[in-house]
Structures are given as C-alpha cells and as structure tokens.
Specification:
Pfam family, one: Peptidase_C26
Number of helices: 6
Helix content: 25-40%
Protein name: Gamma-glutamyl-gamma-aminobutyrate hydrolase family protein
Distance between the termini: 67 Å
Strand content: 15-25%
Radius of gyration: 18 Å
Length: 269
C-alpha cells in the first residue's frame, strides 16, 4: 500500500515565532484518492518548504488537511490570511462538467467543498488569499471560472511518461499586474508538473501570467490580494528568490490585514 502523508512529515524543524507577524490558515490536501508514491514524496517536500518559509518570514500558521472533513472550514476567515497548496484535481462538476474527465486523478469532491467554504469565508473577511497549483485552480473555480481538463500539448508543463514529472518552464508575467510588481520582472522560470490549468477566468479576475503556449499560469483580482500561480514556487529546485518574493508579499498582506482588524473603530459622535 502506498505511504500516506502525515502532518509530522511536513512539520518544519523550526520553532514558531514568539510574536508572529500574522497567523495564516494553510489549507492542504496531503492525501487524495489514488495518490502515488511520487505524489507522496512531492507533497512532503513542497508542504514542508512552504511552512518553513512562512516561519522564516515571521508568520505563524495552522495547517488544515482536507484528507479528512474539516470541522469548520468557514473558520478560515478568522485568520490573517489563507494559503492554498497543491493536491489532486478538482471535481469537474464544480465547474459545469457533465461527465468525469478520464484524465482526472485524485478527485475528492468533499475536499473541494471544504476548500470553497474556506475561500468564501476568507474572502468575506477581506483576508489575503494565495493559491498554488490546485490552490490557484480552486480560486478560479470559486469565482465561477473553469479548468482545462487535460493539456494535450504538455511539453512545457510536465515531463513525458517515464521522465521526471517536473520541468523548468519559462513563464511570462503580465505587465501592470500585482504579480509583476511582486516578482519585479516580466519573465520567470517556474517549476511545473501540471496537466490542468485555468481555462475561462473567473468573475473579477485577470490573467497575471501565461506559458509560452498561452496556457494560463497566474490569475489575480486587481482590487485585492487574491492571487494564484499554477507553478510551484515551494519547490526547492526552483528559484529561491521568486519563492521569497511571493511568500513575503503574502505575509506582508496578512500582517496588514491583522493590523487593520486590530485597529480601533472610531466612535460616532
């Protein structure tokens, strides 16, 4: 039987900050139906580095694993920010597909529902939200967008059968977007291993990055910190500087949200 990912596998070897700048809800799908040994290894590495990066930036976190039903996904709105990590594919019925996609894997409709409830609560509380891979796709579907079920010409996005899944992918960042301001450049190299991507962009969102073949690699809300990237900045084989820029911007936004929530409300005369 394939190993499962346990919370202890992804817990950083760092103490939490005594006085965190912000407290982040991290939503992860550590396990999903049909998970492979390769997936287990990737999720362990990626999740551990994401959590370590938060701690290094002075943020505390609480990890919510949607492997099992969440007691109160709407509680995500009580944190200073919401980080959505990778995992299996979103159930096609969530974005209007009438039949299952034969290329889909790791589908867990209950985990999707928990994630959407967390996103809705964090958005209603005006918290910054940052999604990676599956997380980015969830942000798009939560706004009524759709997903490309399977990228046929996949060479830019993942390895061929029998080759390493992850590839270094050139990604163009759209000038004038929040993502461009964060990364400080119009092209990066991302670590990619995805067979799905954003198709129709959700309500109020814009494309923030694209692959060289036009596949959407980043989305955002121009009016708030609601940002998704399709590649994996939390892969240590990718550029550390880009990871730091993305996570720093998210933690900075969460810290501002924390301070805004703590500010006293002026009394009416």
């Amino acid at each position: 039987m394939t190993d499962r990912v346990h919370v202890s596998d992804v817990t950083p070897q760092l103490p939490p900050p005594e006085t965190p700048r912000a407290q982040v809800c991290v939503l992860a799908s550590l396990n999903f139906p049909g998970i492979s040994a390769e997936d287990v290894g990737l999720i362990r590495r990626f999740t551990r580095l994401a959590l370590t990066t938060l701690l290094e930036l002075g943020a505390g976190y609480e990890l919510w694993d949607t492997t099992e039903p969440l007691d109160n996904p709407s509680g995500a709105g009580e944190f200073d920010g919401l980080l959505l990590l990778g995992g299996g594919d979103i159930d096609g019925s969530c974005y209007g597909m009438s039949a299952p996609n034969p290329a889909a894997y790791g589908v867990d409709a209950r985990a999707d529902r928990d994630a959407f409830a967390a996103i809705e609560a964090a958005a209603a509380a005006d918290r910054p939200i940052f999604g990676i891979c599956r997380g980015s796709q969830l942000l798009n579907v939560a706004r009524g967008g759709t997903i490309v079920g399977d990228i046929v010409d996949y060479k830019l996005h993942h390895g061929a059968p029998g080759e390493p899944t992850f590839v270094d992918e050139p990604i163009d960042v759209v000038t004038g977007t929040r993502l461009a301001a964060i990364l400080g450049t119009d092209r990066i190299t991302g670590r990619s291993g995805h067979h799905q991507a954003v198709d129709r962009v959700g309500d109020g969102l814009v494309v923030a990055a694209c692959a060289l073949d036009g596949v959407v690699e980043g989305i955002e809300d121009p009016d708030r910190f609601y940002l998704g990237v399709q590649w994996h900045p939390e892969d240590e084989d990718g550029p550390a500087a880009d990871r730091q820029r993305l996570f720093s911007a998210f933690v900075d936004a969460a810290e501002l949200s924390r301070k805004a929530s703590a500010a006293p409300v002026a009394a009416c005369d």
